[in-house]
Write a structure and sequence with these properties.
single chain; 333 residues; alpha+beta; Double Stranded RNA Binding Domain; 5-stranded mixed beta sheet; 8 strands; globular
């Protein structure tokens, strides 16, 4: 059962974050209103409702972007919308037209992630674009997904199609989801070779590099707790050395020291060719991981390694302290 109390800003601002997963709390003033807080400190208002035979969590909005009174006022409207009958759409839409509607209304991603999703759909699902979405059958889905090379990408595209057609059913353009009955594509789970014992080998291999730009970029993969694309596209004007921040992201001490000792040679922190930032230094990375005896290690494995071990906190400075503490465990300070 969710912990119940009267929602107010002071309590919600100071809710403790769980070590893993998420916790749920319930409002006494509006008992149908609940809020969950994740291990990363994200807080989201929601209600539960049995919709068409299924217990459903209906998201209202994120706190504090949505205030408590607005969330309380939204409860009745959200529940009313959830129980409305599905409208029957007479207008025919092609899969491409509906995909654009889905992308606008349902996809909530950062810009880079959305670009990757659009590129993947255009590459692998274009065969469906001109078909009327209501006429697409399970065989059509099998045919398109079956042509995708690699189980990982095929499984991802099947998941995207499942979500698109679920939304099409909810909007009344399709009677049944043709993807729902398909078996999941089995994927061989990849295990990262990085662990507590060999992180020092990776550091030694990076520090031995002659190319200063590459060396600093790869060190920032370790120091910053950020994925590859964000590290490589850092700009000098996004850094706040007074508050130890990149944009709104806290930076540990070793990351700040590294950046402060680097010369500013342009807009980008890690300059590449043609006055642009480093894009994909895979050749240099391959040399590093080979020297560290971890040839299958990917750049984003480093980010995932540290983020899984980072103790999250609601306060940004507390997160920074936890970053410093975690790096110190590996002799990085």
């Amino acid at each position: 059962m969710a912990h119940q109390f009267f929602f107010n800003p002071y309590i919600l601002d100071n809710l403790p974050t769980p070590a893993t997963g998420f916790d749920v709390v319930q409002d006494i003033s509006e008992p149908l209103l609940r809020l969950y807080i994740t291990s990363r400190g994200a807080k989201t208002f929601f209600v539960r409702k049995r919709v068409r035979g299924k217990d459903t969590r209906i998201i209202i909005g994120a706190y504090p972007e949505m205030d408590i009174e607005t969330a309380r006022a939204q409860v009745a409207m959200v529940l009313n919308d959830a129980t409305k009958k599905i409208p029957i759409r007479r207008k025919k839409l092609s899969f491409k037209e509906f995909w654009e509607i889905y992308l606008k209304n349902q996809v909530r991603r950062c810009e880079d992630s959305e670009v990757k999703l659009v590129r993947a759909v255009n590459m692998h699902l274009s065969e469906l674009f001109d078909k009327n979405i209501a006429d697409i059958t399970q065989d059509d889905i099998k045919n398109v997904v079956g042509k995708i090379g690699g189980n990982v990408i095929a499984a991802r595209m099947q998941e995207v199609l499942l979500s698109i057609f679920k939304y099409a059913v909810d909007q009344g353009y399709v009677k049944q989801n043709p993807v729902a009955g398909l078996p999941k594509i089995q994927q061989a789970r990849r295990i990262s070779p990085l662990n507590e014992e060999n992180i020092s080998r990776l550091l030694d291999a990076i520090r031995a590099m002659d190319d200063e730009t590459m060396r600093n970029a790869f060190l920032m993969l370790i120091y910053s707790f950020l994925p590859k694309n964000k590290v490589l596209s850092m700009r000098w004007d996004e850094l706040d050395f007074n508050h130890y921040l990149w944009r709104d992201w806290p930076l540990p001490d070793v990351a700040v020291v590294l950046l402060e000792n680097m010369p500013e040679g342009g807009d980008w922190v890690f300059m590449g060719r043609c006055k642009n930032h480093l894009a994909d230094p895979r050749v240099a990375w391959r040399r590093v991981v080979t020297a560290a005896h971890m040839p299958n290690l990917r750049m984003d494995d480093v980010y995932k390694f540290f983020m899984r071990r980072l103790v999250w906190a609601a306060d940004r400075e507390d997160v920074r302290v936890n970053m410093n503490s975690l790096l110190a465990q590996f002799g990085i300070q």
